[in-house]
């Protein structure tokens, strides 16, 4: 018999006046690998947080007794001022509830009155918790995480290396290694964009890891291939609702296209039937002909209108296509920049991250920079953007060249600001109307433009 781990019934969630989720219904069974998909801002991460924290505004979220939950976050929980070893020693969320309950029982044990009551079941629970913590690796998080790091190819760095010196992809690997410790005793794992910043090799390793994981999984991801490889169910968040589908992502797309076609055909047929039935009633009235069927036809129209309203609520919102036009400055010279004999090393690495490299960029070039995590892709961009200096060699930027830089870790953003305030901070010369128009082109709604970045 299939074991129900989590039951979600009639759940709503809002932030201030903004509704994010409405009437969410979902059952998570043992063995489910559920991919949660939807456009940016649809409420995918909010759904994970609402379920895992049981923080719904309306409705019920029930967990099966005794289940354990882990959460791999979208924003990697990394302390940049720590070392790799210190970061590996930090315990993930999967151990928090265990240790909190252990601490609570230990606080009772020091009270002499505790032993005057029915203390034996509590001590049995205490022993059970200790065994679970030990068997899941809670006493050796750093050691187990180091083993995972080796599999992820990040063991070449010294353990005392500052986390701040790691690339974005390497930080993602570090967080992944730490958060994957102890999953052997976990019943449900929530993964929010788990493949962000991971190279192909690490993503493939994670795919295999999640396939072997025996518990249930809820995965938010835009990585269609990852969803195809891992998931056996899809939940689409659209129009504030959760729509369930069977199969992986590719199977979901086929089903969705067929479902939308059938939905549109049903809507058209209902509208025609309502129109023809209304016309028949009017014709009877014009003929001053009493017909007992008129009342029945009115009731039929009411039922069809109710069905039509429900069907139209299921029609996916048509989103405006994202229009992005980057206008380069009018520059006469074909030369943009040149990197000559560029070398860059980092303390603790056995080899230079860039070794005597030469690169020429010309007007009109579109260059893709590829490679595994930690190979120097972001370092190269930071050197070109003059955020980092070379150890030797030189970089020549042609006069009149203006460089724009989109950081992978959103380093230029202030997450305490809303989108309008952020743009005003970066471009104080912009008028409010121009800012709102620009945000609208990037599909920010009227509610989102006033929401802090950390809540988006």
């Amino acid at each position: 018999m299939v074991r129900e781990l989590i039951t979600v019934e009639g759940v709503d969630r809002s932030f201030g006046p903004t509704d994010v989720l409405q009437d969410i219904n979902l059952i998570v069974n043992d063995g489910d690998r559920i991919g949660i998909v939807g456009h940016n801002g649809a409420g995918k991460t909010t759904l994970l947080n609402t379920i895992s924290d049981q923080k719904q505004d309306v409705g019920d979220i029930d967990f099966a007794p005794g289940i354990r939950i882990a959460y791999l976050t979208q924003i990697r929980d990394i302390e940049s001022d720590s070392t790799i070893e210190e970061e590996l020693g930090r315990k993930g969320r999967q151990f928090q509830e265990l240790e909190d309950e252990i601490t609570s029982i230990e606080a009772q044990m020091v009270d002499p009155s505790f032993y005057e009551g029915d203390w034996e079941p509590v001590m049995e629970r205490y022993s059970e918790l200790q065994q679970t913590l030990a068997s899941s690796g809670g006493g050796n998080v750093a050691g187990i995480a180091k083993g995972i790091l080796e599999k992820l190819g990040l063991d070449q760095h010294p353990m005392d290396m500052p986390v701040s010196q790691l690339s974005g992809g390497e930080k993602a690997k570090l967080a992944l290694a730490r958060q994957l410790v102890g999953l052997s005793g976990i019943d449900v794992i929530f993964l929010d964009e788990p493949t962000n910043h991971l190279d192909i090799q690490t993503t493939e390793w994670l795919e295999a890891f999640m396939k072997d994981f025996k518990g249930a999984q809820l995965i938010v991801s835009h990585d269609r291939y990852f969803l195809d490889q891992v998931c056996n169910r899809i939940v689409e968040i659209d129009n504030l609702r959760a729509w369930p589908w069977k199969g992986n992502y590719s199977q979901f797309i086929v089903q969705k296209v067929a479902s939308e076609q059938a939905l549109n055909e049903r809507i058209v047929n209902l509208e025609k039937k309502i129109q023809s039935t209304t016309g028949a009633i009017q014709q009877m009235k014009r003929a001053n002909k009493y017909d007992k069927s008129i009342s029945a036809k009115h009731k039929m129209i009411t039922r069809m209108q109710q069905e039509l309203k429900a069907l139209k609520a299921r029609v996916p919102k048509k989103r405006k296509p994202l229009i992005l036009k980057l206008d380069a400055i009018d520059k006469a010279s074909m030369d943009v920049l040149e990197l000559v004999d560029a070398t860059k090393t980092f303390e603790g690495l056995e080899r230079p991250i860039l070794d005597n490299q030469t690169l020429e960029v010309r007007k009109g070039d579109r260059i893709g920079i590829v490679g595994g995590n930690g190979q120097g892709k972001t370092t190269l961009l930071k050197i070109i953007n003059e955020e980092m200096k070379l150890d030797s060699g030189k970089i020549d930027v042609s006069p009149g060249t203006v460089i724009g830089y989109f950081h992978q870790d959103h380093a230029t953003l202030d997450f305490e600001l809303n989108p309008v305030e952020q743009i005003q901070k970066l471009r104080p010369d912009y008028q409010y109307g121009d800012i709102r128009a620009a945000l609208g082109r990037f599909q920010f709604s009227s509610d989102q433009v006033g929401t802090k970045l950390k809540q988006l």
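The chain is about 40% helix and 20% strand. The mean pLDDT is 83.
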